[in-house]
Write a structure and sequence with these properties.
alpha/beta; Spore Coat Polysaccharide Biosynthesis Protein SpsA, Chain A; seven-stranded mixed beta sheet
């Protein structure tokens, strides 16, 4: 038997005024989904009080697919933010969702996206539109917003608004989505990025509607996004301040642990093997360097995708050079201090502490920018 791509998979669609596309989306979800996994869950999320017959169509299609799971949010007042209920209702290891209007085709792009995700060891696989099949105003405003959101939130993907994505459920469980409007998309991507999710992208096709029209006008959607994004930016900025403070504390704790281990190894080498103190100092520094590299990656900077590959080796080389440089900075501070104020034990210790602080700041600031900046 051919091994399936996913251990288990949820596919869900938010349906709102989508009577004409309910059946084809659900049909494709079951047909394509069963090629990808032996443990499939398909969810029809009714995302508002539709003006057409969407709800009854979902009930009708369930008769053909009894295993279809229905989430009824006809009372929804949060617009596209209703997708949060799709995520919370999903129970499988991987979650795929796309719009219910059939502008993205599962039968064409879902399997290639799934393969790309697994091949790259990604936590989030996102499509980006090859060509947008909308009117010129929507294309222009959509393109402008894409650049705006990417710049403001430093989002790691090309097309925030391309709702054709697969996300590991374990990462969805780490975040809480607060937005009550279309700004939920940059919020979700940014929070997944903060959690250390690795992203992968591929182009997907985008087609003209075969039924109905958009629930938003181009300008009303842009206005909702801009107002929502301002609120989101202020909220995320506060989160970032808190996270930065916590990160410095975590970095300091790792540094303290490294110092304790270094002191232990230093004395162990001298007392048990009579190794020269200078050589012992160098040797005792190597174990904490390797250890702190790994702990900082996971504990401090939440870089969960560390593996034995070229990218990790590059990061470690940068890390090692930064740490070695910090040792020289510390020694330089002590040297300058003792040359100016004398080499008494008190002066030496005062400048040793100052050197440790300077080395700590150097390590944190440079590592966070050169080693751990791109958490993808």
């Amino acid at each position: 038997m051919t091994k399936k791509i996913f251990t288990s998979l949820t596919i869900f669609f938010p349906f709102y005024n989508d009577e004409g596309t309910v059946e084809i989306q659900i049909k494709n979800a079951f047909e394509i989904g069963k090629k990808l996994t032996d443990d499939l869950e398909v969810i029809a999320l009714h995302g508002g009080l539709s003006s057409d017959n969407t709800w009854n169509k979902i009930i009708e299609v369930k008769k053909k697919y009894p295993e279809l799971k229905i989430v009824d949010k006809r009372e929804n007042k949060e617009g596209y933010a209703v997708i949060k209920h799709g995520f919370s209702s999903s129970t499988k290891d991987y979650v795929f969702y796309t719009d219910g209007d059939y502008q993205y085709h599962l039968e064409e792009d879902l399997e290639p996206l799934a393969k790309k995700m697994i091949e790259n060891g990604a936590d989030v696989a996102n499509g980006y539109k090859r060509r947008r099949s909308d009117n010129i105003i929507r294309i222009f405003l959509g393109k402008g917003y894409s650049y705006f959101s990417k710049y403001v939130f430093e989002i790691p993907i090309k097309d925030t608004d391309c709702d054709f994505r697969i996300i590991k459920k374990s990462f969805l469980d780490k975040i809480e989505l607060k937005c009550v409007n279309a700004s939920i998309l940059p919020e979700m991507i940014k929070k997944l990025q903060i959690q250390g999710a690795k992203f992968v992208e591929m182009p997907v096709s985008h087609y003209a509607r075969i039924y109905g029209k958009s629930n938003y006008s181009a300008t009303s959607l842009l206005l909702e996004k801009l107002v929502g994004d301002v609120k989101l930016y202020l909220y995320m900025r506060n989160l970032k301040v808190i996270e930065d403070k916590l990160r410095v504390i975590r970095f300091g704790l790792v540094g303290l642990l490294s110092l304790i281990i270094q002191l232990f190894v230093f004395n162990f080498l001298i007392l048990n093997f009579s190794i020269n103190p200078t050589i012992s100092a160098f040797l005792s520094d190597q174990i904490p360097i390797f250890m702190s590299f790994y702990i900082n990656s996971v504990f401090t900077f939440k870089f969960y995708n560390l593996g034995l590959n070229i990218e990790t080796l590059k990061k470690f080389v940068k890390y090692y050079l930064i740490v070695i440089t910090s040792t020289f900075i510390q020694a330089l501070v002590v040297l300058i201090g003792t040359l100016i104020f004398g080499s008494s034990l008190v002066v030496a210790n005062i400048f040793l502490v100052m050197g440790l602080i300077a080395a700590f700041l150097w390590n944190y600031l440079v590592q966070s920018r050169l080693v751990w900046k791109k958490m993808k």
